[in-house]
Write a structure and sequence with these properties.
Helices cover 17% and strands 34% of the residues. The two termini are 21 Å apart. The protein has one domain: Purple Acid Phosphatase, chain A, domain 2. By secondary structure, it is of the alpha/beta class. Strand 5, helix 4 and strand 6 form a beta-alpha-beta unit.
């Protein structure tokens, strides 16, 4: 099973479409906020995909929650934009929130910096920003979940 993780598009729906087109086999998409309006219409354009969406600190009028929990291939996934858990200062609060909810995969955005960590049996993934990166290039993540393990990967747009 392949999951696509996108964050921080900031009014660039064109790049989201490019990502979704590049991942035709990925049927599960996580959008981690900033700006949810960019992905809302994609739900109609890509009816074969399941969208999991949370709002971020720039989603002032969004009706989406700030955190979510989903299950994929038997793994519980905690996902959030991250601003309410102070992710710019580290991932300890994020990891604790995931552990409280019995999740073994955590997805977050907000920092615009891609990152993959594995700590205490939990995969922690930030796809970076698909349009306004603060590290190198615009990026997103895919996570392959197979019988023999979990493989998160950062992909440059």
């Amino acid at each position: 099973m392949r999951i696509t993780v996108i964050s921080d598009s900031h009014r660039n729906s064109r790049v989201i479409r490019k990502i979704l087109d590049a991942q035709p086999d990925s049927k599960t998409v996580f959008f981690l906020g900033d700006i949810t309006a960019d992905i809302e219409d994609m739900q109609y354009e890509y009816p074969d995909k399941t969208f999991n969406i949370v709002s971020g600190n720039c989603d002032f009028f969004s009706n989406f929650p700030s955190i979510g929990i989903a299950n994929a291939a038997g793994h519980n996934i905690f996902y959030t934009h991250g601003h309410t858990l102070s992710v710019k200062y580290g991932t300890d609060r994020l990891k604790a929130a995931a552990m409280e909810r019995n999740c073994d995969i955590v997805l977050y955005g907000h920092t615009h910096i891609s990152k993959i960590l594995y700590e205490d049996g939990i995969y922690i993934v930030n796809p970076g920003s698909c349009s306004e990166p603060r590290d190198s290039r615009a990026s997103y993540a895919v996570i392959d979940i197979e019988e023999n393990g979990i493989m998160p990967i950062i992909i440059n747009v």
